[in-house]
Amino acid sequence: MHFILHSLITGICATALFDLWGLALHLVFGEPAPAWARGGRWFAYLAQGTVWHEDIGLAAPVAHEEAIGWAGHYVTGVVFAATLLAIWGLDWAHAPTLAPALIVGVVTIGLGWFVMSPGMGGGIAASRAASPWKVRGLGLLAHVVFGFGLYFSALATSGL
After folding, report:
1. Which member of 13, 58, 98, 132 lies 3.0 to 4.6 Å from 153 by CB, making a disulfide possible if both were Cys?
2. What residue segments make up the domains of the chain, in order of their start?
3. What pTM does this model have?
């Protein structure tokens, strides 16, 4: 039960920090605001067995894709938190250290670069984006923020 509780709290809080980071980039630098409609469309098609799209924007819209996207985003964050706990153990949640959280944060960009981006038609590591290196850099930075979120949320709840 503690494993599930720590996975949920840590994953949700770290994902929320990831989103707040994206919102700050939007408000301060004019980057696109966090939005998960396209991701929701991809998650919905993924549930039907379709992983790869030439362009997810050309795929038929699905009902509630924005909500599906946000839910999929947070479920993914919880799965990543659970992965951290599965590798480093529940003891890590009671005495968190920064390195494991940052390792998981950085490694998780691989799912975006090598599954989600090509799956949505953006190419490997956003190679089809107008500014692929900018997208890669911002994505990597966001996943580092996610790693810090894993650490700080585990630190805040270490007494549970």
Report:
1. 13
2. 2-156
3. 0.95
